[in-house]
Amino acid sequence: MASLHSTYSTITILSALALASFMAAYGGNFYNDFEITWGDGRAKILNNGELLTVSLDKSSGSGFRSKNEYLFGKIDMQIKLVPGNSAGTVTAYYLSSNGSTWDEIDFEFLGNLSGDPYILHTNVFSQGKGNREQQFYLWFDPTADFHTYSILWNPQRIIFSVDGTPIREFKNMESKGVPFPTSQPMRIYSSLWNADDWATRGGLVKTDWTKAPFTASYRNFNANACVHSSASSASPSSSCTSNSASSNNAWLSQQLDSTSQDRLLWVQKNYMIYNYCSDTKRFPQGLPTECKTS
C-alpha cells in the first residue's frame, strides 16, 4: 500500500509540474515581480524597482504579493526589519495558496522592545492544517542591515534558511499520512501589521504609536522556481521536469549535506526557543507523526 501511495504521489507531483514553467529571476525588479495589495499608499516601490518598503501606523499596515504563482522553488528575499521599539508589530513573509485547504510556508518576525531580540516564528500549513511552529532568536541584529531569508520548497522537503544557514527542515512524509504541499501553487506575500494582542510577550507589551510609522524594507528578490500556468499555455520543453538536469534546477532535488546539517543543529541547539515537536503539554494524546520520525 505504501508503494502504491508513493507511486500516486510521484504521478501527482509530475502532473503538477507539467503545468509549471521554469523561471529564474535574479535580483528581480519589484515593479515586474510584485504588486502592492493593501495599505493605501503605505507600501512603496522605490529606486526604479530595486527597493520595496511597507509601513504601519495606527490607522493601517500594508502589504504586497507576487504577480506569479509558484509550484516549488528556491525563493530568496533580503529584508531589513523595523528598527528600534518594534513591540506589537509583525512583519510576515510567506508563501500561500488559496482556499479552505490552503498550503502555507511562513516566516513571521515578532517585534520587541528596543534592545531585545526579534523572535523569528516559522510554520508550515498543508491542506489547511498548521500547528507546526518553531521559533528562534537570530544571532545578529536584523534591523541594522539587510539579511537574506530563503525558502527552499521541493517535492521532498521544505528548508528555511537565514543568510544561507538552514534553521529548519520539514520533510515530505506523505507515505506516513502527513500532508505535504505538493499540488497547490502559492504566491509570495509580505505584510507589516499590528498584532499587539499576542505578538510581544503574549500581548503584554503593546505597540507604542509614538514611534510610528514603523517601516520594513526589501531588496534583491531572487527566485529559481516553477511558475504555475494553465495547461493550455504550458509546454513540456519549458517545464521544470524537462530541466531537472540543469544546474539552475538543482534545487528540485536539493537536500542538506553534512555541513548544512551541522549548521542546522547549531542553530537549533543555540537559538531555538520553541519547537512544537517538544511540546507534550500541547499534544497530550501524542506528538504529531512527523515529530516521531527522523
Global geometry: globular
Helix content: 10-25%
Class by helix and strand content? mainly beta
Question: Strand tally, please?
Answer: 16
The proportion of strand residues reads: 35-45%
Rg result: 19 Å
In short:
With 294 residues, the protein is mainly β. It is 11% helix and 38% strand.
Keywords:
eight-stranded antiparallel β-sheet; disordered N terminus; 16 strands; mainly beta; 38% strand; 294 residues
Question: Can you describe this structure?
Answer:
- This protein has 294 residues and is mainly beta.
- The chain contains 3 helices and 16 strands.
- It has helices at 2-17, 30-33, 258-270; strands at 20-28, 34-38, 44-46, 51-56, 62-66, 70-80, 89-96, 104-110, 119-125, 134-137, 147-153, 157-162, 165-171, 187-194, 214-228, 272-275.
SSE order and pairing:
Layout: H1 2-17, E1 20-28, H2 30-33, E2 34-38, E3 44-46, E4 51-56, E5 62-66, E6 70-80, E7 89-96, E8 104-110, E9 119-125, E10 134-137, E11 147-153, E12 157-162, E13 165-171, E14 187-194, E15 214-228, H3 258-270, E16 272-275
Antiparallel strand pairs: 1-15, 2-5, 3-4, 4-15, 5-14, 6-11, 6-15, 7-8, 7-14, 8-9, 9-10, 10-16, 11-12, 12-13
